[in-house]
Amino acid sequence: MASPSKMPIINDEYKKLRDDLMLLAYSALDEAVDRQCLYQKATALGTTVMRKFSSLEGEKTGLRRKLAETMQREKLQFKQTRQMLKGKRSPVRAKKLDVS
Predict the structure, then answer these.
(1) Are 15 and 9 in contact (CB under 8 A)?
(2) Where are the chain's structural domains?
(3) Which residues of the chain have pLDDT under 70?
(4) Shortest CA distance to 48 belongs to which of 19, 71, 85, 83?
């Protein structure tokens, strides 16, 4: 598994979150760091990450809804097209079957 600091991240906002998490992790290893300060930073960062996940979950729900609507429209269009083609092809198929 790759180091978290080498994870590919697209958005600068996520890069900052990744960097903050890495800094926090390395700070926890340092004996000279005040534990209360470390706890406050971890809590603030955890809150930020949870808000981000929450907004992503809302976005995912919206995208799923749009996908379902699009699929329903496509299904209806496919059904209409199939019915239209079925009506036009019937006589042509009969002629092809007679020739065979």
Answers:
(1) yes
(2) 7-99
(3) 1-10, 88-100
(4) 19
Looking at this protein, which amino acid is placed at residue 68?
A
Distances in Å between the Cα of 52 and the Cα atoms of 27, 43, 100 are 23, 14, 65
CA atoms within 13 A on the CB side of 45: 17
3-class state of residue 20 by DSSP: helix
Two tokens at 79?
């059904």
Q: How far apart are CA 12 and CA 64, in angstroms?
A: 26
Among residues 12, 38, 40, which one has the least CA distance to residue 23? Answer: 38
pTM: 0.46
Show the tokens assigned to 61. 């729900």
Residues 6+ apart with CB under 8 A from 92: none
Residue with tokens 């699929």: 71
Token couple for 90: 């019937």
The contacts of residue 69 (CB under 8 Å, 6+ apart) are none
